[in-house]
Amino acid sequence: MSWRLDVENVAGIRRGSATLEPGLNAVRASNWQGKSSFLAAIATALGTASPLTEGATEGRVSLSTDERECAVELTRDGGRVRTTGEPYLSDEADRVCADLFAFLGEENEIRRAVREGDDLEPLLTRPLDFEDIDANIAEARRERDRVDEALSEAEDAADRLPTLVSRVSELEAEVEELEAKRAASADAAGGDETREALSDARAERSRVQSRIDRLESTAERVREQLESSREELDGLDVEDDEELARELDAAKRELHRQERDIELLRGVYDANRRVVAEDRTELLTDVTHAIVDDELACWVCGAETDASSVTERLDELAERIERRTTAAEASRERVEELTERVETREKRRRRERELRTEVRELRERRSDLERRLDDARERDAELAERIDDLRERIESDVGQVTDIESDLKYAKARLDDAKSELESVETKAETLESLRSQRQSLTEEITRLRRRKQEVKKETQDAFDASIRDIVPLFETGFESARLTSEFELVVARDGREASLDALSEGEVELLGLATALAGYEAFDVGERVPVMLVDRLGGIADENLGRLTDYLSGRATYLVMTAYPEHSAVEGRDIDPSDWSVVSDSAAAKGAE
């Protein structure tokens, strides 16, 4: 399970080696000794960085594990650094997840966005770009359209199957009867060109009439589908977009106002309840201990009161919070109801567009079928006229045998056509269940893809909330709570009210940045993609909190690598000593000595 890294000309390390063991690995040293550079070398080996040492033309990182060996070479090419070799992470999406959610140095994009108040949504949803959701939806819909067409043909084939089976049986009986008549005719004569032409014309007309039957059946089904689609389109009732949007926006604003009021009241209640519960009212006002009850001055208005009255007022405040919470729940249900109506409206709009496209395509198909029917009927009339002409020409000089031969050939031709058509229809009908299953799978895949982005957002918010619930009591932060909104805006509550990030300490902002990155870590299952977590530049966090942070991060990744100064005794793990490494600062010191 050990990882061996050999580094040459990467960041501030000229040459150095180290071994990582599962658990916490602390790179412990003073400034300019290669701590951060070693983490950059790990990132290079995994494929997310290429920090070639300044002034060097080539660099290299090799990584040896129990399962594999990989190496990344860096080469300076003009003003840029070219990377070759095989990094540990071969998938681009895995490298993006590692860079955003597992490599938590000072320049981590999410930590920096939290510090600077930048938009978090593009960062927290960036891995979704590699899933190419919209393109996959379009491809799945195209495939479903193809399946729908094949399914329509298979359903038509299944409907026609019993009729074709009966027709083949009837034709087989007719052929047997004609062959028996021919055998009974001792004077059967061979056919001539006229009889052959008559048989051919009859056979062709049979095929044309079969084609007319199929076209008429298909045209009728298309007309029924067109009528059904028109009726559904006419029956669609789509709500007014602007009015519904205004209602939803107003409901969201009202819910937001109620939630902020509740948060403010809870802050006031929790603070005062804690003072009374811990019997620390003397911190805020003068208290006179009496026999029956303690007398004190209200620390808000200064009026004389007693502890029981304060407790009663706090109970009243709790009831007020409960009432407002009930009202907020009603508002939340209203928002959910309106959101569901918006989604229903969007579904109906999508269905309206689909129906309009379907109606247009069905009209085009109907026109094509009518044209083909006209052509087939015209050909049928021509063949009927030709058959009558041929029959008149041969009736004067043909006998019973000739008629039988002609009828037999005609019957066999019809039988062959019917068998061929039956075989084709059976083949199509056999695919019916498979096509239905395939269509259901495609529909479920389209639905899953449409929900994917919202599910990731919800998982990220839930993971952030879980991190905050752990961090607030663990680190005794100056804020009571924090949350990510549905638009991925970071909202912090301090002293019962919404607070700006500028009002927080450097360490608190860094904790929020880490919590946000860890939310993405959980939402995208980065622990299953990337076995190592890198943590660097936590100068804003006190030493005692570093130990708590180390415990909090332990177990999330197989290898946890952190930088630490010698005085950071709270960071306890396997130490990596860079004293044997050759670093850039050594060269600078040597030049200064000269």
TrEMBL record:
<comment type="similarity">
    <text>Belongs to the Sph1/Sph2 family.</text>
</comment>
<keyword id="KW-0175">Coiled coil</keyword>
<dbReference type="InterPro" id="IPR027417">
    <property type="entry name" value="P-loop_NTPase"/>
</dbReference>
<feature type="compositionally biased region" description="Basic and acidic residues">
    <location>
        <begin position="192"/>
        <end position="204"/>
    </location>
</feature>
<protein>
    <submittedName>
        <fullName>Chromosome partition protein Smc</fullName>
    </submittedName>
</protein>
<feature type="coiled-coil region">
    <location>
        <begin position="318"/>
        <end position="459"/>
    </location>
</feature>
<feature type="region of interest" description="Disordered">
    <location>
        <begin position="180"/>
        <end position="204"/>
    </location>
</feature>
